[in-house]
Amino acid sequence: MKQIPALIRVFAYLSLLTVGGGMAAFPEMKVLTVDVHRWLTFHQLVHLYSVGQMAPGPNMMMIVSIGEWAGGILGAILVVIAFFGPTSLLTLIVGRLWSRLTKWPWRDSIQKGLAPVSIGLLLAGCFTLAKGAVSGLETATIAVVVLLVLLQYKVNPALLVLAAAIIGALSFGPK
Amino acid sequence: MSEPSAPSSTRPSPAINPGVPLATVSQIFLEFLLIGATSFGGGVVAYLRNGLVAKRAWLDDKAFVELLSISQSLPGLNSTNMAILVGDRLRGLSGALAGIAGMCLPGGLLMFVVGILYHEHGDRPLATAALKGVAAAAVGLVLATAVQLGKRSLEHSSDVVFVALTIVGVNRLHQSVLTVLVVVGLIAILWYRPRKGQERSHPQ
Fold first, then answer.
1. DSSP state of B20
2. What single DSSP character describes residue B75?
3. Do B114 and A51 touch (CB under 8 A)?
4. Tell me: the pLDDT tens digits for B113-155?
5. Is the pLDDT at A33 greater than 80, yes or no?
6. Helix, strand, coil distribution of chain B in percent, nearest 5
7. Do the chains contact at B133 and A142, CB–CB below 8 Å?
8. Segment B27-61, tens digit of pLDDT
9. Which residues face A19 on adjacent strands?
10. Do A164 and B137 touch (CB under 8 A)?
11. Which residues of A touch B134 (CB under 8 A)?
12. How far apart are CA B102 and CA B99, in angstroms?
C-alpha cells in the first residue's frame, strides 16, 4: 500500500514519454521500476513486456502486472489511470483544437520533427529490451527469424510469439 | 437511436460536430471492448478501422486517417488515443471515457491474471524456458515495427541523423528518455521549422 504514491508518480511520468508508442518509455521504465523502486527484476520486466505482446488491446497493459505486484488491485487500477490519464487528457484537448491548428505552421514542423525521434525512441527501447532478452546465438536467431518473417509475410505477430514460446520450452527447457 | 441526422435537441454534447452519426455511450463502450478483446498481435489500427469505419460507419476513411494522424503525433499509445478521439467526437467526454475503458479492460484483466500466475509460477524451469523464447521473439517484433514505421515515415537523410542521435542519447550516453526527447525533439522540430514561402505548400 505504501508504494501507491510512487506507482502513480512513476507511471504518470512514463505516460508523457510514450511518443510514438509505449516502447519509447521502456528504457525509463526499466530505470524507475527495476533500479530505483525495485518492484521487479529486469528479467521479470522483460518477460512481462514480452508476454504482454500476446495480449489484445493496447500493448502496454503489462503495467497492470507491475501495479498488482507493488500495490495489489488498487495498484493495478491506479497504474492504468496514471499511465493513460495524462496523455488522454492531452489528446482530448488537442483533438478539440486540431481543426484550428491546421493553419498553425509549426504543426507540420512538430509532426515532421517528432517522426524520426519516435522511431529512435522505439529502437532505443528495443535495444534495452534486447539486453535482457538476447543472450546467445539461440535467442538472437529467434529474434532475427521473427523480424524477417514479419517483414516478408503477413502473419499475426501473436502467433509468432506463441511459436517462440513453444520453441523456447523445447530447446531451453528441462531435458 | 440509429437515425443519422438527430434533431439538435438530442445532440449529446456541444463538442460534437454536426453530421456525426449518433452512437450511445454503451455502444461506444461495447465496440471498443470488442476491439480491445480481439486485437491480438498489435496492429490495432486495422482492427479500429474495421470496427469504426467498415462495421459501424461512425467515421469515414478521411476522418479516420485524420484522427489517426492526431493520435500518432501526440504522446500516448495509438489505440488509447484513438479511443479518446473517436469517443469524444461521437459523444463528448463520456464517449471518450467509454472508449478508453472498453479498449483497456480486456487486455488489462488478462495481464492482471497473467501477472499473478507469473509471480507464482514464473520461476519454474519450463516457464523460464518458454519465456526466454517469448522475449527473444518480442525483440524481433519490435524491430519489425521500427523497420516498417521507418520505411513509411523517414523521408530525408537528416531523419536518419535524428534517429541515430536519439538512440545514442538513450543507449550510449544513458540520458533519460525525457532529456533526449526534449533535446533531439527540439533540434528536429527547429530543423523542420516553417520557412517563408512554404506555408502555401501545406494543403488545408
1. P
2. B
3. yes
4. 999 999 999 889 999 999 999 999 999 999 998 998 888 888 8
5. yes
6. 75, 0, 25
7. yes
8. 999 999 999 999 887 678 889 999 999 999 999 99
9. B75
10. yes
11. 47, 50-51, 53-54, 161, 164-165, 168
12. 5
Residue B3 has pLDDT above 50, yes or no: no
Q: Exposed e or buried b for every residue in B105-120, given b needs 16+ CB within 10 A?
A: bbbbbbbbebbeebee
**Nearest CA to B133 among A47, A147, A30?**
A47
Question: Residue A124, class by beta-carbon neighbours within 10 Å (0-12 exposed, 13-18 middle, 19+ buried)?
Answer: buried
Is the CB of residue B102 less than 8 Å from the CB of residue B36?
yes
Strand partners, B75: A19
For residue B139 the three cell numbers come to: 525483440
- On whether the CB atoms of residues B86 and B20 are closer than 8 A, the answer is no
How long a stretch of residues is chain B?
Answer: 204
User: Which pTM value belongs to this model?
Assistant: 0.87
Instruction: Mutate one of B70, B97, B113, B142 to test the A interface: name it (highest A CB count within 10 A).
Output: B142
Amino acid identity, position B154: L
